[in-house]
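[recover] target loaded
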Protein backbone atom coordinates (compact mmCIF):
# COMPACT_ATOMS: atom_id res chain seq x y z
CA UNK A 1 0.00 0.00 0.00
CA UNK A 2 1.45 3.35 -1.01
CA UNK A 3 1.53 6.32 1.35
CA UNK A 4 -1.07 8.07 -0.82
CA UNK A 5 -3.42 5.07 -0.66
CA UNK A 6 -2.99 4.90 3.11
CA UNK A 7 -3.77 8.61 3.49
CA UNK A 8 -6.89 8.24 1.31
CA UNK A 9 -8.08 5.26 3.34
CA UNK A 10 -7.47 6.98 6.67
CA UNK A 11 -9.25 10.12 5.48
CA UNK A 12 -12.20 8.01 4.37
CA UNK A 13 -12.41 6.29 7.76
CA UNK A 14 -11.99 9.54 9.69
CA UNK A 15 -15.47 10.84 8.80
CA UNK A 16 -18.37 10.18 11.19
CA UNK A 17 -20.88 9.22 8.50
CA UNK A 18 -18.46 6.92 6.69
CA UNK A 19 -17.48 5.33 9.99
CA UNK A 20 -21.19 4.62 10.65
CA UNK A 21 -21.44 3.01 7.22
CA UNK A 22 -18.42 0.82 7.92
CA UNK A 23 -19.90 -0.20 11.27
CA UNK A 24 -23.17 -1.09 9.52
CA UNK A 25 -21.21 -3.30 7.12
CA UNK A 26 -19.12 -5.04 9.77
CA UNK A 27 -19.50 -8.78 9.38
CA UNK A 28 -22.18 -8.57 6.73
CA UNK A 29 -23.10 -7.54 3.20
CA UNK A 30 -25.93 -5.04 2.69
CA UNK A 31 -27.65 -3.22 -0.11
CA UNK A 32 -28.06 0.57 -0.04
CA UNK A 33 -31.53 0.41 1.54
CA UNK A 34 -30.30 -1.92 4.27
CA UNK A 35 -27.30 0.33 4.98
CA UNK A 36 -29.63 3.32 5.17
CA UNK A 37 -31.88 1.49 7.64
CA UNK A 38 -28.94 0.35 9.77
CA UNK A 39 -27.00 3.62 9.77
CA UNK A 40 -29.90 6.10 9.43
CA UNK A 41 -28.09 8.38 7.01
CA UNK A 42 -30.41 9.27 4.12
CA UNK A 43 -30.11 8.32 0.47
CA UNK A 44 -28.27 11.28 -1.12
CA UNK A 45 -25.65 11.50 1.63
CA UNK A 46 -25.31 7.72 1.74
CA UNK A 47 -24.61 7.50 -2.00
CA UNK A 48 -21.95 10.22 -1.79
CA UNK A 49 -20.23 8.62 1.18
CA UNK A 50 -20.33 5.12 -0.33
CA UNK A 51 -18.57 6.56 -3.39
CA UNK A 52 -15.78 7.90 -1.16
CA UNK A 53 -15.42 4.49 0.51
CA UNK A 54 -15.37 2.76 -2.88
CA UNK A 55 -12.74 5.17 -4.24
CA UNK A 56 -10.57 4.54 -1.18
CA UNK A 57 -10.89 0.79 -1.84
CA UNK A 58 -12.46 0.11 1.56
CA UNK A 59 -15.66 -1.51 0.27
CA UNK A 60 -16.44 -3.95 -2.52
CA UNK A 61 -19.66 -4.11 -4.48
CA UNK A 62 -21.74 -6.88 -5.99
CA UNK A 63 -24.71 -6.29 -8.24
CA UNK A 64 -27.75 -8.57 -8.06
CA UNK A 65 -30.48 -7.53 -10.48
CA UNK A 66 -31.17 -3.87 -9.62
CA UNK A 67 -29.61 -3.98 -6.17
CA UNK A 68 -25.99 -3.17 -5.39
CA UNK A 69 -24.59 -4.91 -2.32
CA UNK A 70 -21.68 -3.53 -0.34
CA UNK A 71 -19.23 -5.29 1.94
CA UNK A 72 -16.00 -4.30 3.63
CA UNK A 73 -12.85 -5.21 1.71
CA UNK A 74 -11.23 -7.08 4.58
CA UNK A 75 -7.86 -7.44 2.84
CA UNK A 76 -7.67 -3.69 2.27
CA UNK A 77 -8.71 -2.88 5.86
CA UNK A 78 -6.04 -5.30 7.10
CA UNK A 79 -3.42 -3.42 5.09
CA UNK A 80 -4.60 -0.09 6.52
CA UNK A 81 -4.52 -1.43 10.07
CA UNK A 82 -1.09 -2.96 9.54
CA UNK A 83 0.34 0.24 8.03
CA UNK A 84 -1.13 2.40 10.80
CA UNK A 85 0.07 -0.06 13.45
CA UNK A 86 3.57 0.11 12.00
CA UNK A 87 3.69 3.78 12.92
CA UNK A 88 3.44 2.85 16.57
CA UNK A 89 5.51 -0.30 16.36
CA UNK A 90 2.40 -2.47 16.66
CA UNK A 91 2.74 -4.16 13.29
CA UNK A 92 4.26 -7.44 12.26
CA UNK A 93 6.10 -5.34 9.64
CA UNK A 94 7.30 -2.23 11.46
CA UNK A 95 8.55 0.68 9.40
CA UNK A 96 12.32 0.53 9.22
CA UNK A 97 14.08 3.84 9.33
CA UNK A 98 17.76 4.16 8.70
CA UNK A 99 19.46 6.67 10.90
CA UNK A 100 22.73 8.32 10.07
CA UNK A 101 25.10 9.30 12.88
CA UNK A 102 25.17 13.05 13.46
CA UNK A 103 28.54 14.54 12.56
CA UNK A 104 30.59 15.67 15.52
CA UNK A 105 28.40 13.86 18.06
CA UNK A 106 29.45 10.82 20.09
CA UNK A 107 27.67 7.77 18.73
CA UNK A 108 27.31 4.70 20.90
CA UNK A 109 26.87 1.16 19.71
CA UNK A 110 23.81 -0.75 20.84
CA UNK A 111 24.57 -3.85 22.78
CA UNK A 112 21.84 -6.38 22.52
Amino acid sequence: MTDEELVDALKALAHPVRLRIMKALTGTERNVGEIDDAADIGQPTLSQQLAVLRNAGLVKTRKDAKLVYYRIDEARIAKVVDAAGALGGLSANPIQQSRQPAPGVANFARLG
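[recover] notes: The chain has one domain: 3-83.
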